[in-house]
Structures are given as C-alpha cells and as structure tokens.
Amino acid sequence: MSACFGKKVLVDGPSRRLFFYTPRYESMPHYRACLVIPALMWAASAWADDAPLEDLALEDLARLDVATVSRKAQKLSETPAAVTVLSAEDIRRSGARSVPEALREVPGVNVAQIGAGRWAVSVRGGQGRFSNKLLVQIDGRSIYNPLFSGVFWEAQDMMLEDVERIEVVRGPGASLWGANAVNGVINIVTRKATATRGGLMSARLDSQGHAALAMREGVDLEGIGALRVFAKGAELAQSRAASGDGAIDGNRGWLAGFRMDSSGTDSNAWMLQGSTYRRASTEDMLTTGQAGMSGRLPFDAELEGSNLLGRFTWGLGGGDASVQAYLDHQQVSASGYGRGAVDTIDLDFQHRLASLGAHELMWGFGHRIVKTEIESMTPVLTVSPADQKFQVSSAFLQDEITLQPRTWKLTLGGRLEHSTVSHFEPQPTARLMWTPSEADSLWTSWSRAARTPSIGENGAQILFALQRTGNPYMPLVAAVSRPMPGWQPRAERLDALELGYRRSFGNGSFEAVLFHHNYHRLIGETLDPAGPTLPGYPIAVAPGFIPVQYINRSNVGNARSYGLELGLDLPLTASMRLQASYTLMDTRADGNAGDDPARETSARTLERNSPHHWASVHTLFNLGAGHDADLMVRRVGGVGDGTVPAYTAVDARYSWRVSRRFELSLVGLNLFDNRHLEYASNFVPSQPAYLSRQGFVQGVWSF
Amino acid sequence: MIRRCFCRFAFLAALCLGGSLGWTATPPGEYQIKAAYLLNFARYVEWPAARLSSGATLRLCVLGRDPFGGALAGLEGRLVNGHEVKVRQMDSIEPAVDCHLVFVADSEERRVGPILRGLAAHGVLTVSDIDGFAEAGGGIGLVVEDSRVRFDINQAALLRDGLRASSQLLRLGRNVIGLKAP
C-alpha cells in the first residue's frame, strides 16, 4: 500500500480542508448576485442548520462544491519526527516547476538556486551544490550520487503533475533509510498508475521564451492493473551575470518513462517503473588564478541516466512485507574535463509485523552494489583508482511501543550498516512521544547517523588554486587537495537531539522544532606539514614548474549546530489561508585550528555556508468559480561574509480552472527585484548567477 | 441623490460583506460531508442477512484516530433501512471484525495492508480517505477531486466479502474497480 516503500513515517491523503457551498449564480448579473448571494447563503446556512448534511442524498453530496485548501500537519500528529508533507495540491499552489522550488516553504529546508536547473538544497545547514548530508529518493530509488556525495539537481527534471506528494523529514532518518540520511530525507512519491488513467498534456512558456511540454497517457490493463507512459521536454529559465545582461547558463533536455501498478483487487500489490533522461547543462567556471590566468571557462555537461525499479508487497505473518529491487545508471560528461559514471544495483526487503501487544515491530535488510568510473581529461581533477566498486549491506529493526494507549509512545530503532569503503556504522534512534490531547503532541528524540565518504573525497586530487607566495625564487605555489597519505576514511557521524511540538486547531496547525546537532569526524582539510614540494606541476614558462603545497583531507572536523524551525498553517476565512515558516540556525566548528590556514578555512566554510535565518509567508486565495491566487514572500538571510547578501523575493500565482479538463495558470517570480543572487559556490567555482524578474504561463489539459 | 446612491451602495456592500462573513463563519467541515457519506454508504450497501439480520444494530466503527471531530455523533441512533446505527471508535483490528462498516482513519495508513487482510471475508465494508485506498483493496475510498468529495468503489472487494452495492452507488462512484455489477 505504501507508495514510498513502507518506510515513510507518515503518509498523506486528502487533507482536512475547508469547504463551502457555492450556489450557482454565474449567469446572474453582478448587482443581482450581490443581493442574491448573501440571501442564498443565509438561506443555505439556515437550511443547513435545520437539515443536517447526513440527510442529503448521495447525488447531492457528490454535487456539493467545496473550496479546497490544503493543510500541513493534520495526520502528522502521531509522528515523533520533524516531518512536512507537501501534497499534490501544495505543489500546484506553489507554482513550482521543479522539486527544489516546491521545497522552498518547508521549515528547516534551505533552497538556493545556483542557476538554470542547478540548485543547492539543504536541510539544517550544510548548504552546497552537493549538500552531502541529505538523502533524496524518488519512489524508493536514491538519487544521491556517491561520486561527490550529493544530488545532481540539474539532471532531475520530473513530471510534477504526477507527483502524489513529497515527504520531507528533517533530522536524522538513518535508522530507517540508511546512510546519508544525516540532516534529512526527501522522499518524492509519484502517483500510482491506477490513479492516472487517461491522458494529460502540460505546456509552459516563460518570459524568456523557453518552453516545456509534458505528455502522459494512462491506460487500463484489463484484469492486470494500469500503465502510464510519459515524456517531457523542457528548456529551463536562464540566469544573468552580475551586470544584469546576458544569459550565462542553460539547461535543456528530455525525460521519458513508464509506471505500471497492479489493480489492487487482491491484497498483494506490485509496481514496475522505469525512466530515462538526457540533459545538457551549460555554465561558466571562473578560474581564480593569477597573472592573466583568470577568466571564464565554459563548462558544458551532458547528463544522462536510466533506471528500472520493481516492488512487490504481500501479507506475511499477519503483517506486511515488501521487496524492492532497482537498477540505476547515471553519467555526467563534460567536454574537456572528463566523464563520471555510476551504476547501482539495490535490493531491499522489509517486514512490518502484526502488533504484538504493545509492540509494533518492523525490520528489514538491504544490499547495494555500486560501480563507479571516472575518466579525467584534466590535471585539475584526478581520481584514483579511476574505477571502483563498493558494496553496502545493512539491516534495521524498529519497535514502536505503546506505553500508554493514545498518550505515550516510545520508538526504538537501529540500523547496522557495513560499507566496503568505511567501517561498521551503528545508527540508533530513540523517540518518545506524548499526546496529551487529540490536538497536541510533544516529542523528543536522540539519534545517530552516518555519512559515507564519497568516491571524490576518498580519492580525488584537485588543483584548486595558484597562490602567490611573495618569495622571488618561488613566486607561485599550486594548492592541491588530496586524501591524507595513509588515511583510513571513516564515515562522518552526527548525534542529534530534537524536541518538537505540534498543535492542530480547527483546520489549521502549528509546529515548532528545536534541534541540536553534534557532528564528529567531518571530512576537513589540513595543510601538509612538508610545505611546498617539488617537482610540482610542469608549466610552459620559466622556471618550468610550480611547486605544490598539498592540502590533506581526513576526518579532522567537529562541529555543532542548533536551530529552531516554525511552521504555521492558518485558515483566515473560508476563502483565504496563510502558511508561514521560519527557520533560525547556527553552526559552530569545534576545536582549535591553530595556525593551520587550511583547517581554519574548512572550519569557516562549515560555519558560513548557510544563512542563519530564513522565512516564508504564503497567502492562498480561493476566489471561487475555479479561480485561485497565491502570493508568496520569502526572506533569506545572507550567507558567508556577504558573498550572498540577504534578499527578499515576492512571487505570485493566479490560476483559472476553465473547465474540468483545462487549467490555465500564470506565475510571476521575483516581482519586485531586478536581480538577486542566492548562491555562491563553496566547491565548484561557477560564475555567480543572478536571478531576474520572470514569469511563465502554463496550461494543463486532461483528457 | 448622491447620498442616496452612496447609501444604497453602502447597504449593498454591507450586505455582501456581512453575508459573506456570516457565511464564512460556519463552513461545514470536510469530515461533516464525509460523515454524511458514511450514512449513505450504509444505506446503499446490502449486508448478507446472516451478517446483519433485519432490525439488528448496524455497527459503524472508526479504526484509529477519529478525524470526524464530533460529526459522527450526529449518526448515532439514526435508522438506516430499519437498522439503528451505533458508532464506536477502536484502536485494533480484532474487535473491528464485528463492525459492519469500518472507517479506517488516516492515522492507520501504515497498517492498511494488515487491516484489509484482517477484515477480509468478515462481511465488513471498509471505507477510508487514505490515498489509493480502494485501489489497494479497500471497499470504498473517499477522494477530494475538483473541489468535491467523490468516492471510488472496489467492486471486487465488496463481492468477495458478500456485500452488494446498489446500482445507484456504483453509478455515482468516480471509479469502479474490479468486476462490474452483475
């Protein structure tokens, strides 16, 4: 049943919504409508008082018009974790064209656009192009890339119309989801094929002239289930240089796939899905060299991938069991730089047992084989060995104990994981939840999670700067980052403490979470004690070489972060709703860097790579008769030492459901802002990309 | 004249506004509508006589956290096809097999598989607003679509449990899954 492979801590469904009857008055002249509506409404409410809804016939119930507005946390009240679920309706109302845009209003999640199709998405800090402590999955398939520990968002276009929900778990989810679910997990769940019968076409045109077209066709497989096939081609909005002119990047490509689901007429269920994509992403790299060596280098990447996933769910021992397997291939190649490919085979089993008294047990195991290949065409970045293969095996067990029915619940769980590139990593969790009333819940948790070092961290040698020394005999030194000689890589470790409170009132909800994260063995850099060494890098001019100063990577870092996440969902009137979020956080690197400038730099990077606070306010208006409008304002604090200044962005959306089969929407982004910067690289030296005022129009037909 | 116009305008505005505000103050909740649906499902589904003899009490149960916020109290004691409705809330599957209609609350979503297997072949009509409930083998799934509350019926699941849905119910369902009515 559970679309996200049962591991989800919660699920979404039709929300608790606000309803009102809309008497059919469209054909009346307005002045009459003005008189008639209140009269009708008054009559209707009087009638509603006299004749309870229960007495309405089935036909009348099905005909009641309701203004739907989504909620956030209604059924999360039993989940002892910081979780936000975005429903399909939330995604539609956000005007998002991509998954990162849809995540902008989730407390604790920081979304910064790097450029066209490129995003830095992080949860609770550690923002970066490769936010390495965040696990992202689509229908149970990880899109976390082990080469550089992160998600290549530029490769991930999706057909958002067929996304059922996005679950965002902040804080460690490792005991259930495994390694790399350190600061959070994002689960993207697509709709079952049985829920997407019929055709759909979605077309978009933006103010820069870029178009996107997506098509889906769902068919009923009589007696077997249902199948949908889809294809999408999109060219994404471009960003500008600091001067405001010119488009400095681009992203275009296509995606095609299918999903098949069983019909659900018996209690076993199966699902099979696959997709393939190809995208081209272009950007400019800034070289930070000296003496005429600086400039812009075009970086054109081709990203492609294919995957196939199958899952079978059946009843086992009074409980539910499921087995899932997938194959995934992804490849990035950049002309003049090289190529990287990752092939993954993943097998996962899990079993939720029938409750035994107060205990509800769940256990499972998994095995993953990953093969990576890196081919480097530039001395700037080399990885050795070029081809690698590693395996990860893990098993988990979780017990949900009802201490006192409906009031106290304790969840104990743990995962033991072994990876051939790291050690055994135990990842336990304990969560206690108190639900004093139907409306309130208070929970607290302690958990430990681990992040496996990436192939890049374990084996890459990166030339990242040429530094002037001031010494006439050795004017320049090449700074090269490499794994410390003799380093046995260990997983980075997080111990997290959380305290959360949730309250639902009427159709609204409020959520507050306090967290304290304590990181150990973070991979950081120290200056190689040997100093500049020879022979170094050969160059074409005298003296014929540049000495190399090595900077060694190893598990040297420790840090703490703490923060507060607030979320509010408030119905103001039957036709207006307010959703707001606020996040406050701070990260401090521990330990004394001494006089080691490399260590100092990694500590500062850790502290300054995320904003200290950000907030969003989204007002949803239901204008009736199929019209709705949204106003979204968000404020994001500055990052670093002013490299990315604080900014406020205002977006607006208007949509009109012209008929049951057609919806038209108009979205304006950055309305009061000529341009702003959201991100400056902490790893890849991309040219800063400024986002400007833009808009798009989109039509969605279903047939 | 101007003043009269203004007065009329103000009056109209006040009427519009007052009417709207008065209206918006008491919108019927989603679960009030869903509660009304439950009563209608009980009305339009026929249980085998051995399961629900004439004049017997019809037990309507909520499994899990009650999302109706008191709306079910209005169903208590009502008569449906000569059966008196009794509403109960329960936390586990075992006692629920004695109910005639079980509403599976969304708090139970993780346990839908075991719940459906546990209630199968007991002559229980299962109803829920959990996503994809009817497709997962449940009896009737409530869905909100195009600003209306609609429902999907899994006719195969109903027939397996010896329940007969009236043709009217099947006609009004958004999707009828499985076999068509004979």
Describe this structure in words.
The complex is a heterodimer of chains A (703) and B (182). Chain A has 703 residues and is mainly beta. In chain A, the strands form 4 sheets. Chain A has a 22-stranded antiparallel beta barrel. Chain A is globular, with a radius of gyration of 27 Å. Chain B is built from 6 helices and 10 strands. The interface between A and B is large, with 77 and 70 residues.
Termini separation of chain B: 71 Å
Q: What share of the residues of chain B lie within helices?
A: 25-40%
Secondary structure class of chain B reads alpha/beta
Note the beta-strand portion of chain A: over 45%
Please state the overall shape of chain B, judged from the principal axes of the Cα atoms. Answer: globular
Total DSSP helices of chain A: 7
Low-confidence parts of chain B: 9-27
Uncertain ranges of chain A: 1-50, 67-74
Question: Which key phrases capture this entry?
Answer:
heterodimer; A: 703 residues; mainly beta; 22-stranded antiparallel β-barrel; 35 strands; globular; disordered N terminus; B: 182 residues; alpha/beta; 8-stranded mixed sheet; two-stranded antiparallel ribbon; 6 helices; 35% helix
